[in-house]
Write a structure and sequence with these properties.
By secondary structure, the chain is of the alpha/beta class. It has a single domain, classed as 3-Layer(aba) Sandwich (Rossmann fold), CATH 3.40.50.720. Helix content is 44%, strand content 15%. The protein is built from 8 helices and 7 strands; from the N terminus they run E-H-E-H-E-H-E-H-E-H-E-H-H-H-E. Strand 1, helix 1 and strand 2 form a beta-alpha-beta unit. It is globular. The protein starts with 7 loop residues before the first strand and ends in a 7-residue tail after the last strand. Bound molecules: NADP nicotinamide-adenine-dinucleotide phosphate (NAP). NADP nicotinamide-adenine-dinucleotide phosphate (NAP) binds next to helix 1.
């Protein structure tokens, strides 16, 4: 029930970090995978890794903050594979700044990428999935979306929005056999936070807040994404799954 054979997945932010790890996990479970982001070389590398696992792959350049670009990404994926069964919205950006110091430009950039980008991708792919009568959407939120982490205001607001959007969409399309869930990670070591984790001042403070006393490795998120994408999660929709090394239990 965890197999994804004959399923087609589209993973935004699939060029690196958590999106890449999820794309590879989905491929290992049997899915063909389209990976999408702005950096062509990274997409080509991940597509090659997916093909090395015996699955079909497609690399699609997209800027998720541009709804026209998102529409093209979905058309290209649907055109190549004829269906989209799984959407993972992992494209996102992080920025640390106190709210009172955050400029309009920074606020708009974070919200436009993380929240509007997730909305555009959900809207476009949900239309395909409704027409198909099946699908699973997985949004990558963050523990920041339910906590109040000082210095991460715009980011936390964008991820709180992703959590609300996930629940509403799940209920709006539940009768179309399309499930919508979110994974809310704690700290994982990726390009997004490697500098903070490696900082001699900030890094130890972050790790001290995590009961497991370490950041997650990207590979440790893949199994949860496979589960939510698969028939094993057939009764699961509108849920938020935390994966944080114990951080959310505190
Ligand atoms: N790492 C963590 O600890 C952590 C914790 C909680 C939540 N998250 C969330 O997990 C997701 C993945 O983060 P990550 O840690 O894997 O970061 P990452 O390594 O920086 O990867 C981010 C991905 O998003 C893509 N992206 C960014 N802006 C984009 C845009 N406008 N259009 C299309 N693609 C875009 C990037 O590709 P290009 O730059 O090439 O476009 C890249 O593939 C994000 O939503 C992040 O907020 C991460």
């Amino acid at each position: 029930m965890f197999r994804l054979d004959n399923k087609i997945a589209l993973v935004t932010g699939g060029g690196r970090g958590l999106g890449r790890a999820i794309a590879l996990a989905l491929a290992e479970a049997g899915a063909a995978v389209a990976v999408a982001s702005r950096t062509r070389e990274q997409l080509d590398e991940v597509a090659a890794e997916i093909r090395a696992r015996g699955q079909r792959a497609l690399a699609v350049q997209v800027d998720v903050s541009d709804s026209a670009s998102v529409a093209q990404m979905v058309a290209a994926t649907h055109g190549e594979f004829g269906q989209i069964d799984i959407l993972v919205n992992s494209a996102g950006v992080g920025w640390a700044e106190k709210l009172v110091e955050t400029s309009d430009g920074t606020w708009d950039w974070i919200l436009k990428t993380n929240l509007s980008g997730t909305f555009y991708c959900c809207r476009e792919v949900a239309r395909v999935m409704i027409a198909q009568g099946r699908g699973s959407i997985i949004n990558i939120a963050s523990v920041a979306g339910v906590k109040g982490p000082p210095g991460l205001g715009a980011y936390a607001a964008s991820k709180g929005g992703v959590i609300a959007l996930t629940k509403v969409l799940a209920l709006e399309i539940v009768r179309h056999n399309v499930r919508v869930n979110a994974i809310a990670p704690g700290y994982f070591r990726t390009d997004m936070n490697a500098a903070a984790l490696d900082d001699p001042e900030i890094g130890p403070k972050i790790v001290k807040r995590i009961p497991m006393r370490r950041a997650g490795q990207p590979e440790e998120i893949g199994g949860l994404a496979v589960y939510l994408a698969s028939d094993a999660a057939s009764f699961v929709t509108g849920e938020i799954y935390f994966i944080s090394g114990g951080e959310m239990a505190q």
